[in-house]
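Example 368, ligand uridine-diphosphate-N-acetylglucosamine.
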Amino acid sequence: MIKKKKILSIVGARPNFMKVAPLHRAIIKSGLFEHSILHTNQHYDDLMSKIFFKEFGLPKPKINLHSGSSSHAVQTATIMVEFEKVLPKLKPDLIVVVGDVNSTVACSLVAKKLGISVAHIESGLRSFDRTMPEEINRIVTDSISDYLFVSEESGMINLKKEGISKEKTFFVGNIMIDTLVSLQKEIDKSEIKEKYKLNGSDFILVTMHRPSNVDNKNKLGEIIKLLNEFTNYGKVFFPIHPRTRKMLENYNLFKKLSSNKKIIITNPLGYIDFISLTKNCKVVVTDSGGIQEESTFLKVPCITMRENTERPITIKVGSNILAGTNSKNIIDHVEKIFKNNIKSSKIPKYWDGNTATRIVHHLNEKLN
Ligand code: UD1
């Protein structure tokens, strides 16, 4: 009997789990490879990690590197040191990394230097803003990966401009959408709206965690003012990322939020409840990357509080508005959306729930 090739997928932070889950399922279904998962533990809280294994039916990781939080250099280096210890024992034929977090770049570097091939899912995205840690992670990972799986057309153009050979790049669509498609029924059964007495859809869903927005006291103060202004339109639902909570507490801003009864503050939510809120709200206001994509698929307006996006397709198809951080500008957009002055939008190519299957097909052609 021919031995199956071994694939090891890396997860580390919250946005990774919804990308690796469909790949795991597609690999197992194909019967073509052996598959296991390694968790760097970049995100370690139950609400940032464990809950997703349960919701997505992901198997327990074969290895946990217990890296945890720290400065960028320490976090990246810790993951590299720990990964280098276990990788020779695991002997995979390929590692799969996803997205743009520190775990992604750290594990790619280690694998390549040990002569192991790397596949990068969500390759080619560029914000062209090198002050973003994620942009550095994307550029470095793409420059050393062997197989680059791309979620939107801009990614193919960016990789070509960077001189990456066409043979290595594959336009396969958005694997995160596979998870959304497969969990539609569970999402529709979520009772999160009832739990928080959100009637109708006249509420605003807010997420905020980028260092550029939350690590600066003045900027974070402005955002809190803005959230209070949003309540002139409807309730505001704000599940708070650990980084943001820490900053709100450090800067003594938490009270300014919690004193407004129309602002619902919660811990980070699970996937099913969060997507249920995304699907049912009037508008999402966010600085996340993934939420721009999920709202695009659900055709819910999204206001992105950043100066740039590495996901330009979400703007091109009409659901996402790149609003920057100017409060007046953001309020104008919210007002328009509440007056139902909304553009119709489309779903991007290959965001159809079958991306993982396409990836497995290409991996089979290349590896077997
Ligand atoms: C990371 C990713 C970012 C992604 C985000 C999603 C990088 C460079 N950044 O940012 O791209 O959008 O995850 O959440 O990889 N913390 C906890 N519990 C946890 C995890 C973090 O309390 O489970 C706190 C720690 O105090 C830590 C801070 O949050 O210092 C930031 O965590 P970190 O992993 O460094 O980056 P994120 O801001 O979460």
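Summary: Residues 72-90 form the longest helix (19 residues).
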